[in-house]
Design goal:
The chain is mainly α. It is built from ten helices and no strands. The chain is about 80% helix and about 0% strand. It is elongated and about 70 Å long.
Length: about 280
């Protein structure tokens, strides 16, 4: 019994931990692109693929616009509900992937710091692996942010799939009417459907402003922590100090980029009609 407990308490070796985390991250990379559609399937069991969704959106948008009301038409409501579930599922998987990549990155960079007596080739390989994992972590972070934004305002996110260049169809007619109303002066009366699109577009950008603010604070706090660790590190620990300083500067730059993102999205949220008009003129 004691032998069994002792075996269970043996820590996983760093190499094995890296291998397990790498395998898990690889599986999650596949899942983040494959699983959301299946997880977000309709209550009746229907799964929508991208081709079907784009085709269905054409008719649903025309139906919604011609209804004249703020409330979604039945077909548009079905698509918006699906798109909300899709973004929630993708954000959740991307968040798990981000957590795994953070753990993997810590293991790789610690291995790099310990590899002072290793061959030059191993040190270069560890540094390159650390850079790749860090870059993948940033991509996963962006995916979490974008999908949280899409979950908050799935209607605006869904509209990006419309074929804005289409001509000679009911959709082209509807899009032309939308553009006409969006380019109208503030004193002109607009339809409830156009008003709903403007409000949702504002919410879409406000969501990213809030998310960006949270991210900016997180990166700034990380940078401050890293510089404190740098200041406490003995001068002889040159490699560790270089890594801490590099990530401290990098985190500060990412915080600055997030602030720019916040300002841009907050401005659009405050006056969303011109931005939505530009969106319908050329799409994203």
């Amino acid at each position: 019994m004691n032998t069994t407990v002792a075996r269970l308490r043996v820590p996983i070796s760093p190499n094995r931990a890296v291998a397990l985390l790498t395998a898990l991250a690889s599986a999650l990379v596949v899942a983040v692109f494959v699983a959301p559609g299946a997880l977000a399937k309709a209550p009746g069991g229907q799964t929508f693929d991208e081709a079907w969704l784009t085709a269905a959106l054409r008719g649903a948008f025309v139906e919604y616009w011609n209804s004249g009301g703020r409330a979604f038409s039945p077909s548009m409501g079905t698509l918006v509900d699906y798109w909300f579930r899709f973004h929630v599922a993708k954000a959740a998987i991307a968040a798990i992937l981000l957590a795994v990549l953070l753990a993997l990155g810590l293991h790789v960079w610690r291995a790099f710091l310990r590899a002072t007596d290793s061959s030059y080739g191993r040190q270069v390989a560890l540094a390159a692996s650390g850079v790749v994992v860090t870059a993948c972590g940033l991509i996963a972070s962006a995916m979490v942010m974008a999908n949280l934004q899409g979950a908050v305002a799935p209607f605006s996110s869904l509209l990006s799939m419309l074929p804005f260049g289409e001509t000679n169809s009911d959709l082209a007619t509807a899009l032309g009417q939308v553009r006409e109303q969006l380019h109208a002066s503030p004193t002109d009366r607009i339809s409830p459907a156009a008003g709903a699109m403007i409000s949702d577009f504002s919410r879409y950008h406000l969501a990213m402003a809030v998310i960006g603010a949270i991210v900016a604070v997180a990166f700034l706090a990380t940078s401050v922590w890293l510089w404190r660790q740098f200041a406490r590190m003995p001068l002889l620990e040159k490699r560790t100090r270089r890594v801490l300083a590099s990530f401290g500067v990098f985190s500060a730059l990412l915080a600055l980029a997030a602030v720019v993102l916040v300002v841009a999205n907050a401005g659009t949220a405050a006056d969303s009609q011109p931005a939505l008009a530009a969106f319908f003129d050329g799409g994203w």
